[in-house]
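Quick question: what would this complex look like in 3D?
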Amino acid sequence: MATKTIAGVNINVNEEGYLTDPSEWTREVATEIAKEEGIELTDKHFEVLEFIRNKVMNGEGLTIRGIGKSGIVDAKTFYQLFPGAPLKKATKIAGVPKPVSCI
Amino acid sequence: MKKLLILGAGTAGTMMANKMRKKLARDEWDITIVDQFKTHYYQPGFLFIPFGLYTKEDVVKPKSDFFPIGVNVIYSSIEKIVANENKVLLADGVVLNYDYLFIATGTRTAPEETPGLKDKLWHKEIFDFYTIEGAVALNKFFKTWQGGELVVNIAELPYKCPVAPLEFVFFADAFFTERGLRDKVKITYVTPLPGAFTKPRATKMLGELLKSKNINIVPDFNVAEVDNDNKKIIDYAGKEVKFDCLVSIPTNMGDALIERSGLGDDMNYVLTDKHTLQAKDHKNIFVIGDAANLPTSKAGSVAHFASEILEENFMCAIEGRPYTASFDGHANCYIETGYGKGTLIDFNYDTEPLPGSFPFPGVGPFGLLKVTRTNHYGKMIFRWLYWHILLKGREMPIDSEMQMAGKKL
Ligand SMILES: Cc1cc2nc3c(=O)[nH]c(=O)nc-3n(C[C@H](O)[C@H](O)[C@H](O)COP(=O)(O)OP(=O)(O)OC[C@H]3O[C@@H](n4cnc5c(N)ncnc54)[C@H](O)[C@@H]3O)c2cc1C
């Protein structure tokens, strides 16, 4: 475990840069991490991030399907907002653990 | 009389009916099992059908061959579970009450979830092999196919028997080599995963195996649609892969019954405690097999290991004792690699597949993460074990809990 200064505050992160304590998350922290990922956050991004945080705090699993059915964005838009690996990027920016795929 | 009701008479439900009938006194417990179909399919056998290694007759038997005496069997589609009232509604208006319920309704393929998948090329140049119809149609197609781009695509996670698509491409490599067509068939494995499998060591081993067999892999691909006119699959990021023959592992989902009953997640898998196998919020409902949202493989072997845990915990529940068994997510999968050889992985919730020997440390006879002839026999023997031992709920000579002995870290 390591700490990292994000948006002027010391934040606990793991070796991949995911927050280890979701309560340390703020909008400023999100904006900063997003920048590192090459994403400029809009209101739509924040709506998705809030949805993800709520799901995770409730102990529910995250899937692209679930986000696509959230009523906030469809799967295609989700990919456009967080290009490349949407679930990995969005969770990193939302300050929650990286989802594990278990098959 | 107390009532135990089992929904679904596939691998898991049939196993539990046999186990519980032996365990529960006939004059105290009434056991009923419900399924919509009369035929039992040996699903692992579907993999062998496209390549002519098994026929349809090798994988079907009447379900009634496997039910013990003293269990009521109802063939009907199940409409809804009303968990708060301890009752189940069947399609024809019949209402069944229960004291305890086992949900074993499995998972099904849902090709309709991907636009263009079940369209004009369906079962003509686009196939699945997770259904008997798909496997048989593909067998017919392969008999006269002269080659081209063979694309195997996994639509979405999770899907049952996660190694089956890999076995499919290994078999395809051997099949077309034996027919002298391999130089005309380009095989591409297109997956939403970042590599051949989920966990590091198995991914590395299986990835190298793909490479050595000249099978291409396209990772991180989440299919958004199938373009039938231009014969290509397109992912959400706009990436495209062309095909002449597409073999799809369609989205897998729990039965719509679970959604109607309000007991499931996004994919209609029942919310289940991963250690006790009890349904979330309902103490008298247990879940077994592919129907559960457990973070482990959806496989017959997992259902088998879980059945021993469920049997023990169910006895605790009805006798008012605390649960004594805890499921560890144990999975054990033989992987066919073609040419009469195979490999084997053994893992659970916390331990990734590791190299070594199984089940006896240093002796085997099976090799973990190794390609051997014995592993292939393991898979072939499995079919016999499945019909004669597993479904009937008899003891298998393997621990339900994963063992570290014999594994190399
Ligand atoms: C191609 C392929 C290869 C495989 N290879 C392997 C392997 O090598 N090793 C291994 O361990 N596993 C393998 N599996 C997985 C294995 O077959 C399944 O994990 C196992 O059968 C799951 O058992 P289950 O009882 O949970 O579900 P199922 O056996 O699918 O049974 C579910 C039952 O519920 C019934 N049902 C569902 N909904 C309703 C409803 N609304 N009303 C009435 N009835 C309903 C269905 O009709 C069905 O009979 C493979 C699967 C496939 C498709």
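Answer marked as accepted. The interface with chain B takes residues 60-61, 63-66, 69, 75-76, 78-79, 83-86, 100-103 of chain A (CB under 8 Å).
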